[in-house]
Every structure is written in C-alpha cells, then in structure tokens.
Specification:
The chain has 29 residues and is mostly helical. The chain is built from one helix and no strands. Keywords: Coiled coil.
Length: 29
C-alpha cells in the first residue's frame, strides 16, 4: 500500500513541476 502512495506522491510532484514550467513558459511568451 505504501508503494502506491509513493507513486502517487511522485505523480503529484511531476504535475507541480509541469505547472511551474508552464507558468515560466507563459511569462516568457
């Protein structure tokens, strides 16, 4: 069960990174 939670945490972290990159890209354009 903890393994699933770890994977979910990793997914959330990736989504956060994508949002940050998207915001930076928008501010650059």
């Amino acid at each position: 069960m903890s393994e699933v939670m770890d994977r979910l945490d990793n997914l959330e972290n990736r989504v956060d990174l994508l949002e940050i990159i998207a915001k930076k890209a928008m501010s650059v354009v």
